[in-house]
Design a protein that fits this description.
globular, 243 residues, Rossmann fold, alpha/beta, seven-stranded parallel β-sheet, 7 strands
C-alpha cells in the first residue's frame, strides 16, 4: 500500500529567502529531518550567520531577480526534491493616490516575478514527484486599506498556484499564507517595543498569539510531505483572516 511521505530524510531542498525569518526556519526544520538544504539570499552576512547557527546548511548569495544567478544556483545543486520561496521585498503602506509606482514595480519584481522565475529555473532539476512552495499572505483575501500592491502580489501568487498545479503536474505546487509573524522583516527601535507589539497583535487573534517563524515553517514541511496536496493555499495565520 502506498503511504504518504513521513520524513524529508535524504531529500534535497532549496529555500530562496533562506537567510532569516520563515525561510531560515524552514531550512533548519528540514535539516533536522535529515534533508540536504540549500539556503539562498541577497545578504552574505546573514547567510554566514545562518550557516553558523545551522551546521550542515549550504548557502549561496544571489538575487532572485537575476535569472542567470538562479540558473547557476540550481545547476550547482543538481537534482532537487523541493523548492520553497519565501523571498520578499519591503513596501510601505500607501493609498492609491500616493502610490510610489517605482517601489511597487520593484516589490512585484522581487516577490511575484521572482517567485515565478525561481520556479522556472528550478523546473529542469525538479523531480517528477517534487514540490514548489510559494509564500503569499492574508492580504490576498482580506482587503486592507493602503495595501493594494501587497494584495496584488499575494493574490497573483495564489492564482499562480492553481494554474501551475495543473500545468506542472505531477509536480505539486502550493502556497503558505502567513499572518503576522515575528521575524527580522519587522522594524522596531528595541526588543521591548517588538515584544509589546507582538503581544498586542496576538491578543487580537483567535488563537491568542502571533505565530513564530517556526510555527509557520511547519506548514511548509507538512506540504512537502503531503503527496496528495497540490493547488492549495495553507492559511497559517493564527486566525487573522477571521479577525
Amino acid at each position: 500500500m502506498t503511504t504518504s511521505i513521513s520524513s524529508l530524510s535524504h531529500q534535497t531542498l532549496a529555500v530562496l529567502g533562506g537567510s532569516s525569518g520563515i525561510g531560515l526556519a524552514v531550512a533548519r526544520a528540514a535539516l533536522a529531518e535529515g534533508a540536504t538544504v540549500w539556503a539562498a539570499g541577497r545578504d552574505p552576512q546573514r547567510l554566514a550567520e545562518a550557516a553558523a547557527a545551522a551546521p550542515g546548511l549550504q548557502t549561496a548569495a544571489l538575487d532572485i531577480a537575476d535569472p542567470a544567478a538562479l540558473a547557476a544556483f540550481f545547476e550547482r545543486i543538481g537534482v532537487l526534491d523541493h523548492l520553497v520561496v519565501t523571498a520578499g521585498a519591503s513596501l510601505a503602506a500607501a493609498p492609491l493616490a500616493g502610490l510610489d509606482f517605482a517601489a511597487a514595480r520593484q516589490a512585484i519584481e522581487v516577490k511575484l516575478i521572482g517567485s515565478l522565475r525561481a520556479a522556472q529555473q528550478a523546473l529542469p532539476h525538479l523531480r517528477a514527484d517534487g514540490s514548489i512552495g510559494f509564500t503569499s499572505g492574508m492580504l490576498a483575501r482580506k482587503p486592507t486599506p493602503n495595501a493594494l500592491v501587497k494584495t496584488v502580489i499575494n493574490a497573483g501568487l495564489e492564482a499562480a498556484v492553481r494554474q501551475l498545479a495543473k500545468e506542472l503536474a505531477p509536480r505539486r505546487v502550493y502556497a503558505v499564507s502567513p499572518g503576522p509573524v515575528d521575524t527580522p522583516g519587522w522594524s522596531f527601535p528595541d526588543a521591548a517595543s517588538r515584544a509589546a507589539k507582538f503581544q498586542q497583535l496576538g491578543a487580537g487573534l483567535p488563537v491568542g498569539f502571533a505565530a513564530s517563524a517556526e510555527d509557520t515553517a511547519a506548514a511548509y514541511l507538512f506540504a512537502m510531505r503531503a503527496r496528495a496536496l497540490t493547488g492549495a493555499v495553507i492559511d497559517l495565520d493564527s486566525g487573522a483572516q477571521l479577525s
